[in-house]
Amino acid sequence: MRPLLRTLAASSLALLIATSSALAQNISTPPSGDNQKASVSQWIGLVKVTIDYSSPDVHSPTGEDRTGHIWGELVPYGMHDLGFNDCKSCPWRAGANENTAFAVSHDVTIEGQPLAAGRYGLHMVAGKDEWTVIFTKRADAWGSYFYEPSDEALRVTVKPSACEYHEWLTYEFTDRQPAQATVALRWEKLQVPFTIKVPDATALYAAKIQDEMHSGKAFDWWNLDAAAQFWLQHKLGAKQAVAWAEKAVAQPGVGNENFQTLSTLAMAHMAAGDEAAATRTIDRAMASGGLTATAMHGFARQLQGIGRPKDAMRVFETNAKRFNGQWPTGFGLARGYDGLGETAKAIAAAKKALPSAPDEPNRRNIEAFITRLEKKASGK
Question: Residue 151 gets which letter from DSSP?
């Protein structure tokens, strides 16, 4: 073979070998130690938290019961030598096999310390009375063998506690609130909890709503009304609430003038300090079609809730005239008088409304209302 041809043949063989090596992938075989992969996710408002981990069990792959030998033995206390990659002082991988990975969609705090949105390796340093939870910037390493202190994004200290027996290592969200959640590693008879908080959940919702009001969702009066109500509820600015509420009522091709949209617009006018517009809009709302006694009663209660007892009484009175005898118009008058401090009238109206209660819970509610006012009237 001529030299040039020999050179080309050798180059082609080398390229084929390199390409084959580059394309090689692991086939799907059972996980090491039969430690099955698991994942748990939890939303905290708009924030999504996910933990991906491999889950060992208390009984070893050979069936040995390791109860009482997990903590401080199988999982050593403190930083320890893993015997690989010269990692002489490394944390526990907080699971089995590959990194346990912690992902969060937005910035949060962990035990009061800030952690930016992202995906992290989750490691722990076990202790008899205190544990350290470590978040590293390498989420896809193999266990803790490649741990480097310089990769740490955050470390916090937490307290372990006893829990019911768990055969398999598990991550569970043990407490869930609108702006925070607690997640705990649970294995054998021990749990290690840490708390995740969203610094300003309202601001996240506000930003999301503002984005959505520039999308197709803004072509729906219901969404415009809901956006205005959110702005009012959280006192985010009356001007914007009025703008969305006006669109919900009257924007061509989108708006719908009904009791809901008009009552929201009235509330927005009140928040903006435009009393004349608020009065006109309340009148429009009470004259609108498709109205029910229950809806008017609810609006009046809203007005009471924001410290507008006179406006509320006007709605209660109109409700009683328009839907004479229907539930809950009579009890609404009692509520209205109570809001104005006219206790005797409130008691009389409540007693008159008692026979119209539609069910036992409402009857008991009226009776409790009367009892409270009578005690107030007697000075007890």
Answer: G
Terminal alpha carbon distance of the chain? 115
Q: CB of 138 within 8 A of CB of 121?
A: yes
User: Residue 158 and residue 125: Cα distance in Å, rounded?
Assistant: 10
Domain residue spans in the chain? 32-197, 201-378
Cα–Cα dist 299/312, whole Å: 8
As a whole number of angstroms, the distance between CA 159 and CA 167 comes to 21
Q: Which helix (H) or strand (E) holds 324?
A: none
User: Which among 255, 259, 315 is positioned nearest to 285, based on CA atoms?
Assistant: 259
Q: How many Cβ atoms from other residues are within 10 Å of residue 43's Cβ?
A: 12
CA–CA distance, 380 with 372 (Å, rounded to integer): 10
pTM: 0.81
Distance separating alpha carbons of residues 17 and 89, to the nearest angstrom: 39
Phi-psi region of 213 (alpha: psi -120 to 50; beta: other; left: phi over 0): alpha
What tens-digit pLDDT sequence spans the chain (380 residues)?
A: 444 333 333 433 344 444 444 455 578 778 777 788 999 999 999 999 999 999 999 999 889 999 999 999 999 999 988 777 777 788 999 999 889 999 999 999 999 999 999 999 999 999 999 999 999 999 988 878 888 899 999 999 999 999 999 999 999 999 999 999 999 999 999 999 999 999 999 999 999 999 999 999 999 999 999 999 999 999 999 999 999 999 999 999 999 999 999 999 999 999 999 999 999 999 999 999 889 999 999 999 999 999 999 999 999 999 999 999 999 999 999 999 999 999 999 999 999 999 999 999 999 999 999 999 999 998 87
| Paired tokens of 25 | 């992938």
78/92 Cα distance (integer angstroms) = 9
**CATH top class, domain 201-378:** mainly alpha
Amino acid in the structure at residue 124: M
Beta bridge partners of 296: none
